[in-house]
TrEMBL record, chain A:
Protein localization: Cytoplasm, Perinuclear region
Protein name, per record: Trafficking protein particle complex subunit 2-like protein
Keyword Aminoacyl-tRNA synthetase: no
Record lineage: Eukaryota, Metazoa, Chordata, Craniata, Vertebrata
Highest taxon of the lineage: Eukaryota
A GO-annotated cellular component: perinuclear region of cytoplasm
Keywords: ER-Golgi transport, Transport
Gene label: TRAPPC2L
Record-linked PANTHER family: TRAFFICKING PROTEIN PARTICLE COMPLEX SUBUNIT 2
One GO BP annotation of this record: endoplasmic reticulum to Golgi vesicle-mediated transport
Pfam families with a match to the protein in the record: Sedlin_N
CDD domains found in the cross-reference section: TRAPPC2L
From TrEMBL, chain B:
Main subcellular location: endoplasmic reticulum
Protein name: Trafficking protein particle complex subunit 6B
GO CC annotation: cis-Golgi network; endoplasmic reticulum; trans-Golgi network; TRAPP complex
Keyword Endoplasmic reticulum: yes
CDD domains referenced in this protein's UniProt entry, alphabetically: TRAPPC6A_Trs33
UniProt GO BP: endoplasmic reticulum to Golgi vesicle-mediated transport; nervous system development
């Protein structure tokens, strides 16, 4: 009933979920190939062909497909410090990680942490709350990294994700990182060539963020 | 020393430039509307940037009234070196900011002379207020009126979405 993908790997999840109508054989397209679709996704997320292609080759070799999958998994779960911003509509204006891989994971982390941020903003409404909130707590007990948040008065949220193994980063260092970020963001905002809501492409901002990440790692 | 004056001159030139540009194109009525919206747009963008800078070290605002008070005091002071003289509200989203000696109008006249030209010189400031509020998360409609120079009133209506 179900045919394997072009690479010989078992069929896609979607096709498992689909009931075949009668016994009609659907033509197999390239998009049906699970290995290819996963590798394409990995490539989109990381932009790094050098790590993804060998994995794909391994996967399609037939015998070594398990090794290929291991390679792809390694691409995703590389931990690092990253810095992300997002405005009112909660899409990221800027995202940066060291090393510059596995940004998808941080996208996901940040999106979930935004919920916690929103919660904190709304509950702290009545009390004269502090502008910043630190340490949103371990969002995933299994993963070992810390997520810090900061909200400006203009509802721009800054999120820093730090490796837990990096225990040298203390509270006031994180605060000063956020201060620097806020200052640079204010400069970006005052730049007449920057339209609010666009992704941030300022080189000054980039260099500030790089310097900060180098300093903390 | 001459700091305040610099912006006043620039603003006057800005207004006359925008009107001169438009005069060479379409008919008179459309001119007025486009010019005012151009000036307002400029003010909007500047307001967004300015508010970011002004609120950098400020704790979070409690509610709309708090935001308006900040606008009347710190924001106005940072731009026009004085505070707004009077703030009135109906507690349902409408605020009226009254400035008895509006910096950008003092040089125009001090009475009823040139009253019809006054709106041109208020468009930018309306945009400024709207931009500032928009970045603080409040969508609004800002209009201005003058009955006696150089005092003017800005009416801010917060849009409840």
């Amino acid at each position: 009933m179900f045919s394997p993908c072009l690479c010989g790997f078992p069929p896609t999840v979607q096709r498992h979920a689909v009931r075949p109508i009668g016994h009609a054989k659907l033509p197999l397209g390239v998009s049906d190939c699970l290995c290819l679709s996963v590798c394409l996704s990995a490539l989109r997320w990381t932009g790094d062909l050098s790590t993804v292609y060998p994995a794909f080759r391994l996967m399609t070799a037939g015998i070594g497909w398990m090794d290929g999958w291991m390679e792809i998994c390694k691409v995703f779960f590389h931990l690092s410090v990253s810095v992300i911003l997002s405005p009112l509509q909660n899409y990221p204006l800027y995202i940066r990680s060291v090393p510059s891989q596995s940004e998808l994971k941080f996208h996901y982390t940040v999106h979930t942490s935004l919920d916690v941020v929103e919660e904190k903003i709304s509950t702290a409404g009545k009390a004269m709350a502090e502008q910043r909130e630190l340490y949103l707590g371990l969002l995933y007990p299994t993963e070992d990294y810390k997520v810090y948040g900061y909200v400006t008065n203009s509802k721009v949220k800054f999120v820093i994700v730090v490796d837990s193994s990096n225990t040298s980063l203390r509270d006031n260092e994180i605060r000063s990182m956020f201060r620097k970020l806020h200052n640079s963001f204010t400069d970006v905002m005052c730049n007449p060539f920057y339209n609010p809501g666009d992704p941030i492409q300022s080189r000054a901002f980039d260099s500030m963020v790089s310097a900060m990440m180098v300093q903390s790692s | 020393m001459a700091d305040d004056v610099l912006f006043e001159f620039l603003h006057m030139e800005m207004v006359s430039h925008v009107y001169k540009e438009q005069a060479s194109r379409d008919d008179i009525d459309k001119d007025r509307i486009t010019c005012v919206s151009i000036l307002e747009g400029m003010g909007f963008r500047v307001g967004q940037g300015l508010i970011e800078r002004c609120t950098k070290d400020y704790p979070t605002f409690k509610d709309d009234l708090d935001v308006m008070k900040f606008l009347c005091k710190d924001f106005w002071t940072s731009i026009f070196r004085k505070q707004v003289d009077n703030l009135r509200t109906n507690h349902q989203g409408t605020y009226v900011l009254q400035d008895n000696k509006f910096a950008l109008l003092t040089q125009v006249s001090s009475g009823k002379q040139h009253l019809e030209e006054a709106p041109k010189y208020l468009a930018y400031s309306c945009g400024l207020i709207r931009g500032a509020l928009s970045n603080l998360g409040l969508e609004s409609v800002v209009t201005a009126e003058v009955s006696l120079m150089p005092s003017c009133k800005f009416q801010v209506v917060i849009q409840k979405s």
